[in-house]
Specification:
Elements: E1 10-12, E2 17-21, H1 34-38, E3 43-46, H2 56-71, E4 77-82, H3 84-95, E5 100-106, H4 115-127, H5 133-139, H6 141-144, H7 151-161, H8 166-178, E6 192-197, H9 205-213, E7 220-224, H10 239-246
Parallel strand pairs: 2-3, 2-4, 4-5, 5-6, 6-7
Antiparallel strand pairs: 1-3
Helix pairs in contact: 2-3, 4-8
Length: about 250
């Protein structure tokens, strides 16, 4: 029997509302380094993606509920999405523009291509024993993390992701097979910042960021030199500073 979905929302700080949207691992615990920095200026919410979502619309509805709870009204929030979370954030901003004060998308994409990579990932996840995933993450750390991320932070990442479930990964990969927001990108009107790691070996973030920034009116693209796909736990990446440099009025 499936347990009821509990987003496990955590709130930190006081000020304008800001919501983090988790990536493929589905847990807001991976934002642990950025939350204290942002909480000096914002009311920061983190939450957990449900593992049984079969459609993007379900994740969009969940995020709408989180934003409404954090703002305690039909008010907008700053929404930050990383990787898969960036896809959720983009979909949410298109469906509920009235709830998004500003949008930040990190190392993400409007469509995951080539789709054959998704098919291979889904097949591998179904066949490979799930208990080997910590070893896989450890062996691929040098390609996924920023090069200067401290070993202690990578160990913490490995500990946090041990709690992720195969069902959640498979569900989110399945959602990406249908996900495509390339055409409607031009409808976004809120301030939008695309962040792209220069050394991202999982997603061609710089290329995708340029594509999206070129189609969202007034959007800004900022490339993060020397960073890999998993960059929010790197010692020299400060989202609060990046936000202030982009929009001091936020």
């Amino acid at each position: 029997m499936t347990a009821p979905y509990d987003p496990l929302t955590a709130l930190h700080g006081d000020g304008p509302p800001l919501v983090f949207v988790p990536g493929m691992d589905g847990t807001g615990r991976l934002f642990h380094r950025q939350v204290p920095l942002l909480a000096t200026r914002y009311r920061v919410a983190t939450y957990t993606l449900r593992d049984d979502a079969e459609r993007m619309e379900m994740l969009v509805d969940d995020l709408a509920g989180i934003v409404r709870a954090v703002t305690q009204a039909e008010a907008p929030a700053i929404v930050i999405g990383e990787s898969f979370g960036g896809a959720v954030a983009l979909s949410f901003a298109l469906a509920h523009p009235e709830l998004v004060h500003a949008l930040v998308v990190l190392n993400s994409f409007p469509r995951f291509l080539p789709q054959t990579r998704l098919w291979l990932a889904i097949t591998a996840l179904r066949l490979v024993p799930w208990q080997t995933m910590p070893l896989v993450r450890r062996l691929t750390a040098f390609r996924l993390h920023s090069r200067h991320t401290h070993r202690s932070e990578i160990r913490r990442f490995l500990e946090v992701t041990r709690a992720t479930r195969r069902e959640g990964y498979l569900a989110r990969l399945g959602i990406l097979r249908e996900y495509d927001v390339r055409e409607p990108l031009g409808a976004l009107r809120m301030p939008t910042l695309f962040l792209a790691s220069e050394l991202d070996h999982l997603v061609p973030s710089v290329r995708e960021g340029r594509y999206m920034a070129g189609r969202v009116p007034g959007a800004t693209l900022r490339v993060l030199p020397g960073h890999g796909h998993i960059c929010l736990i790197a010692p020299d990446l400060d989202l609060e500073r990046l936000l202030h440099e982009w929009r001091p009025d936020l």
